[in-house]
Amino acid sequence: DQQVKQNSPSLSVQEGRISILNCDYTNSMFDYFLWYKKYPAEGPTFLISISSIKDKNEDGRFTVFLNKSAKHLSLHIVPSQPGDSAVYFCAASAQTGANNLFFGTGTRLTVIP
Amino acid sequence: DVKVTQSSRYLVKRTGEKVFLECVQDMDHENMFWYRQDPGLGLRLIYFSYDVKMKEKGDIPEGYSVSREKKERFSLILESASTNQTSMYLCASRAGGSGELFFGEGSRLTVL
């Protein structure tokens, strides 16, 4: 059973607007969450993370929000740029540094110029 | 920059063949991982290793084995390839105590 879910397989956004990618999880033991970005024919690259002791983490144009009660996190990209077009995976682990990260199925973001 | 290098980007093999996928990292990371990525299923952990000669099964180890004889190298072995092992295979490494994984570019395996 998928413990980390990304229910939107794709998202299209106009350049300059906000992109919001969503992720839900079922395991209440997860306490560390990450977002990865993947371009075609490349491996995923780390984007941003958040610990369960926080509800928001920001890095430039990227902000991750965590709602523990809803078991939901989201990635906001503002403003969206064409170079942001990629597949985004959220991932979770039961402790920081745990050896098993559970990944979602990914959301393909297309930023339209 | 951390570099994780996977030896083959694209492979085509026949059912029953033995397949080796090699992965090398250059940052002296303790932990190394093999994932497979399939449409609609995301990334699933096959095996990981936290030290030389040490290995742990992930979520889908059936049909696979691994070898870690040196710290920098982690190999994934398909003893007898089957068509359901057609997939994108991703190697990753991580220093101890950190959640971030560094991935290689992936090896796309097709089993005919």
Gist of the model:
The complex is a heterodimer of chains A (113) and B (112). In chain A, 0% of the residues lie in helices and 53% in strands.
Number of strands of chain A: 11
Quick one: overall form of chain B? globular
Largest sheet data of chain A: 6 strands, mixed
Order of helical and strand elements of chain B: EEEEEEEEEEE
Binned strand content of chain A: over 45%
Distance between the termini of chain B: 37 Å
Q: Please write the string of helix (H) and strand (E) elements of chain A.
A: EEEEEEEEEEE
Binned, the helix content of chain A reads: under 10%
Secondary structure: number of strands of chain B: 11
Q: In percent, how much strand structure appears in the residues of chain B? A: over 45%
As a whole number of angstroms, the C-alpha radius of gyration of chain B is 13 Å
Number of helices of chain A: 0
Query: Helix proportion of residues of chain B, in percent?
Result: under 10%
Q: Work out the oligomeric state of the chains in this entry.
A: heterodimer
Radius of gyration of chain A: 13 Å
Query: How many individual helices of chain B?
Result: 0
Q: Label the overall shape of chain A.
A: globular
Largest interface, Cβ cutoff 8 Å: A-B, 27 and 29 residues
What do you see in this structure?
Helix content of chain A is 0%, strand content 53%. Chain A is mainly beta and 113 residues long. In chain A, the strands form 2 sheets. In chain A, strands 2, 4, 5, 9, 10 and 11 form a 6-stranded mixed β-sheet that branches. The N and C termini of chain A lie far apart (37 Å). Chain B is an all-beta fold. Helix content of chain B is 0%, strand content 56%. Chain B has strands at residues 4-6, 10-13, 19-25, 31-38, 42-51, 54-57, 65-70, 73-78, 87-94, 102-103, 107-111. In chain B, strand 7 and strand 8 form a beta hairpin. The radius of gyration of chain B is 13 Å and the shape is globular. In chain B, 37% of the residues are buried. The model of chain B has no long low-confidence stretch (mean pLDDT 92). At the A-B interface, strand 4, strand 5 and strand 9 of A face strand 4, strand 5 and strand 10 of B.
